[in-house]
Structure formats: structure tokens, C-alpha cells
Amino acid sequence: MPRLKARLHGGDIYSAARELNRDPAEIFDFSASINPLGPSSHVWKAITASRHLLSHYPDPHCWDLRQALATFWHTDPEQIVVGNGSTELIDVLPRALGMHRLLVVQPTFSEYAAAMKRAGGQTTSLYADRSNQYALPIDRLCRVMETGRHDGRSIDGILVGHPNSPTGQACSADHVARLATVARRYGRWLVIDEAFADYCPERSVLPPASSWPQVVVLRSMTKFYALPGLRVGYAVATPAVIRRLRRQLPPWSISTMGQVAAIAALRDVAHAQRSLRFMARERERLKKLLAALPGCSVLPTHANYFFMELPRGRHTHDVTEQLRNEGLLVRDCSSIPGCNARSIRLAVRSRQENDRLIQALSNLLHDGV
Ligand SMILES: Cc1ncc(COP(=O)(O)O)c(C=O)c1O
Fold it and tell me: Which pTM value belongs to this model?
């Protein structure tokens, strides 16, 4: 079978299963960062109870889901638009906001630049400082917002991952609010991707940001609510901005089951709390195990994944391919701008799965790849 080279995103258990001649369920996926407890049991019940709706088109307005989200965030349904995953909203942002040149902070999620390219726009990069643990450079970003220029080029807006992927870094909500104030003053866009912010709610800019002009907050129901196969994400912004986004979306892009599942997931507060408690415990345990691997350095994280560097002399590509042969997928970050050849991102999964990954990594690093 021909080897598929460019792995742009994590989570492709299907290609790995085909290559290894295994069932997709036998692949351990640390390359996408999904809540290891899985979706709420309420989701299954809601999907079953809605079977009869399958022979109808989905609600094109996502009315009930927007009501549920508005209640959740203490905002108005007119300030929410739902997309087929937040990826769909990232895709329409440049056209909806009329952005031609966007600034991103590298290393970061490649879809921001890909969406700009698809829309005929351009992306310019500011690099977070590795020696400062890739912290979001808020002061530098505020200066770019003020001048509207970076590297001699003009920009219409800034997109920050918060927490950022792959680095797991997030600053305080106050710092992001400061950036939003400058964005408003100078009439530039600020997009805040909070796809992983469920894991650090104290750092999220919601609910206040729902009424900030010039600001769009993106959220995903894929990660924390463990629904990547159903594709649900949403944006929160002022009603005028939401209308601009909605105009760019195709009709019926969010399936009936996606809408039904998202509502059920959102309402299961007990599962959400269990998930947060589990993550806090298991992330701490895994961090210690990773840090104890010879020569590895692990960054602190605000999300459900770790960004780390393998020992000097190792190359992420070799290690990820070896792990892949054992059915363990991790995210090779070596080709992301701002990362180096030893950069890797790993999701926090169940205790048993994490132990298996540690064992495999330990064998590779002790024996040589
Ligand atoms: C930082 C970040 N934002 C957004 C997304 C898109 O997620 P989804 O389209 O599943 O909501 C991803 C997916 O990996 C991501 O890593």
C-alpha cells in the first residue's frame, strides 16, 4: 500500500488501521486530543430517541442547540452560530470577516493558515519564544494590533489558540481581554480559538467576550464532549458578526444527530465534572511519567495534551513511525513552523492506555530507534 506522507492532522485511525491491517478500534489514538471518558451516556439515549428524525433534513437554524448554548453561556441565541465542527467556522472566517492578511502565533494549528489560503488571503507568523515555554506574547500582539503591521506587512486581524495547539499554553482571561480592547480601538479582528478551553474554564473569555465588538470566540464540541465523529462546533460574537458568519455557511451542515447529541452532552453537568476531575488527576500522573523518560522535556499544559521534546539526537518522525507500527498514534509536530525536529504532542488518554504509551516510548528511548 502506498505510504501516505503528509499527515496534516491527528486522529486518522482509518489510514493507520489500513496500513497495519487492523480494525480501527485496535488503534490507540494519542494524536487527537479527545476526552478519554468518551461522550456522556445521555448522548446515546438522545440519539436513540431521535431515530425517527433521520428521514428529515436537520434543523437549518440549529434552534434548540443555540438555545441550549445561549443558556449555558448566559447569552443570546443570536450571538451563536453552529458549524460542522469549529473547522467549518475557521474555514468561513476569512470570507465572512473580509480578512486578507491574518497574523497567527506559531507554532499553532495549521487550519488557520490553510483557511486563509483557500480564501485567497495570506497568513503572517509571529513566533512564540521557546525559551519562554511558548507563552502567548501578549505585549507583542498588542503592538501588532496597534500598528496593524508585522514584518513590514499590514494585517487585518490576529487569531490565537487559547489554549494553543500544539503547545497547550494559555494566558489569563485578563490578558486576552487587553488584546481585545486594543483590537476594538484600532478596528482589527481578534479570533480566539477556545477549542480546548473546557479544560481551563478560568482562562476562557466567555461569557463576557460574547458582547465584545471585533472579537469572535470559537468553541468545539469535539474534544471535551468527545463527539469528533459528529462534527459540532460554534462561534460566539455580536449578532452582526454572527450574521456575517452564517451567510457564508452552506445549509444543513450540522446533522440532526450532531445537534441532538450536542444538546444532551451540554446538559450532562455530572459527566463534565467527572471528566475534569479525571483529567486533572491523570494529566498530573502522565506528566511525571513523561518527564521521567530519559532526556525528554515536557511543557506544562492547560489542555488535555502534552507538548514535549524528545532527547537530543532523536527525531520525532522516527519515533512516531515506530509507535505507529505498534498501533500507537502520536502527533509529529516537527513540520509545524516554530517547532523543532524533536517536537511531539500526546493526548492524555485512559490510565491503561497512557501506561502502554509510556512503556512503548521507554522501550524506544532506551533501546534506540
Ligand atoms: C486548536 C484546534 N482548533 C480547532 C480544531 C477543530 O476541531 P473541530 O472541527 O473538531 O471542532 C482543532 C482540531 O484538531 C484544533 O486542534
Answer: 0.96
